[in-house]
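Input (Putative nitrite reductase [NAD(P)H] small subunit):
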Amino acid sequence: MTATASATASTPRVELLSTAGWSPVCEWELLVPGRGVAALLPDGRQVAVFRDSNDRLYAADNRDPFTGAYVLSRGLLGSTADGRVYVASPLLKQRFDLATGECLDDEDVRITVHAARAA
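Output:
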């Protein structure tokens, strides 16, 4: 499932989908393009939420699978030559496609992506 959504003036709050339904994360204006925030889902999972420079939302596991540290929300956003948006881990710099969860540097590793919306 792709975890992207576009925001409009009538959608001021960022929400994530979990087994408990849509959970609020923060106000849209507080999510700075290119930077991430960490959110805790009702089931206890940590998720990293990002807004890119085109106002698309992405959400993925906050846990870096290479180190086990919950730091992906502190990573930097970038994009590949073909337009794939990724987050680079702040620790070892592996890049994860935010639409698919695929590690762009190791095809055997991936993270879970989550549905996000501005509502």
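The chain has a mean pLDDT of 90.
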